[in-house]
Amino acid sequence: MNDSRPSVLIIDDDPQIRRFLRAGFDLEHFAVHEEPTGQGGLRAATLRRSDLIVVDLNLPDMDGSNIVERLRAWSTVPIIVLSVRASDEDKVKLLESGADDYVVKPFSMVELVARARAAIRRQTRTDHGEMIVKSGPLSIDLANRAVYLDEERGTLSPKEYRLLQVLAKHAGNVVTHNTLMKEVWGVRHLDNSHYLRILVRRLRGKIEKNPKRPQILVSELGVGYRLTNGNEAR
Known about the structure:
Blueprint: E1 7-11, H1 15-27, E2 31-35, H2 38-47, E3 52-56, H3 64-72, E4 79-83, H4 88-97, E5 101-104, H5 109-128, E6 132-135, E7 138-141, E8 146-149, E9 152-153, H6 158-169, E10 174-176, H7 177-184, H8 193-207, E11 217-220, E12 224-227
Parallel strand pairs: 1-2, 1-3, 3-4, 4-5
Antiparallel strand pairs: 6-7, 7-8, 8-9, 10-12, 11-12
Helix pairs in contact: 2-3, 6-8
């Protein structure tokens, strides 16, 4: 019988972390495979299909960011990076090199699994061309460029819709400030970050029940913004 469980490849040199991750993913019905080195992880990624790769940033034989870059040369598999480095600069660098998400150590397994499922859902939408993205009471119909809040159609400006569209395509995962600036305004306006803050404020005014306490379009301080996925927004 075929194993229909989502599969995760863990690349981490710490046996205790691997045991912790294996136990947590096993409980959530993932098929788990482990590799203690970067080279072994890259080899396993080419030999076995994975729905998700979780990689530690500090490996004995190579930096996790190099693994992300090498995987992104040929694969779109969702990648979550584990790291003790918590600086905004590190997070932005990882996301813009191709990681889907990052989790800073120490972390809870509940948080990691939630981010893992969000990354897998995003990839599934991309693979299957799903055209409707939901975040709590918000529905974005990408095919018809329509937005509904509690089933009532809303009206957005072209820039507001473009911002929401980019976030919807990565729903559940953080999108960096620079990525959003490039996608909405183009590379010539990368230095005009205040454009993004103003646009986010306007958009929240239209899609959030309480724009001062956003539940749909949330900030990842110093890094970017994230559209919460599915029932996460309440």
